[in-house]
Fold o-succinylbenzoate synthase.
Amino acid sequence: MKTINLKEVRLHHINVSLIAPFTTSFGTMENKDVCLVEVVDESGVSGWGETVTSNEPYYNEETTETAVYMLKDFFIPRLLHREIGHPSEVHGMLEFVRRNNIAKAAIETAIWDAFAKKNGLSIAELIGGTKKEIESGKSIGIQESPEVLVKKVDQYVREGFRKIKVKIKPGADIEYMRAVREAFPDIALMADANSAYTLDDADHLKQLDELDLLMIEQPLAHDDIIDHAKLQKQIKTPVCLDESIHSYEDARKAIELGSCRIINIKIGRVGGLQESKRIHDLCMENGIDVWCGGMLETGVGRAHNIQMTTLPNFTIPGDTAPSSHYWTEDIVTPEIEMHNGLIRVPDGAGIGYEVDPQKLAKVIRSEERITSTETPHPIPN
Ligand SMILES: O=C(O)CCC(=O)c1ccccc1C(=O)O
Ligand SMILES: [Mg+2]
């Protein structure tokens, strides 16, 4: 296969507004700065990635600004003007910096896209994904009342979504989930707590067991796998980990401890597609189901999610919903569309969607072109 050698990295700083505010147990998101990372190979082929951050470090420790800083001072200088034999090598090349996984993933995924395009393949084909369409789920933020929530669920079920995920927090949990389950006895339904509880809430959370939920996502602390293992022994509802899993090693330990039965894989959270695939494979060997989480991505991040979800152990519908559920206009052509709850995997090379320059121009704040490896920091070879 043709190798990659980056001659330039373009940072497209954009600002995008969600069509409606999205509320989780840690806050409300409405508008965010995002950095689109475009890597340009010496052949002229380019590839796209996205910082799936927001402006505040409330989901994890990264923000868009910290991700841009890490990219400019460390990751771009490490990767420019070097022969990259295969994108699976990039994660290792960035391991000299600990964590900062969303920043790493932004450029790693861009290199997957460029490499795939240069070789005339889709990313799915490169990683061995075979699905031709993926099932789409809808993640619903915390609503003002169970009645309002039920109305939203009704709308999304009619639209065809294959899974409904409801954000919960203390004071907006059991009653809300029960209302949805009573109205829709048969839908695939789950809750996401974003770390809003402690092990002292085990008896409270046990009330969810009668609602036949697919899972409860990240009920306990963002950095915990011990208490989650204890909780899983006390409740029947499968525990799914999101925030606690940053790497293959984290996944291995969580599986060994029995901290979860399901893992939500987010390319950004684990530092890229290569690490995502390793976690996917590990889970498959161990009978742990996985699904692809969402970070309110633009079309670029969303396209990467679609490519990854073609792998066989993505057995549960993910949070990757169509563009129109987030943006009045997405930046990619065509927009990501859903029919009958399914998103068709595009045939094209790389991510299979094109960033549209005219749409990009409407949300752009500034652009930078980086061609030099100069940086104030010592960078390993
Ligand atoms: O992209 C989506 O639709 C899902 C959004 C979502 O649930 C989410 C969005 C931002 C940060 C964390 C999460 C989460 O899965 O916990
Ligand atoms: Mg989550």
Summary: Residues 125-355 form a domain with the TIM Barrel fold (CATH 3.20.20.120).
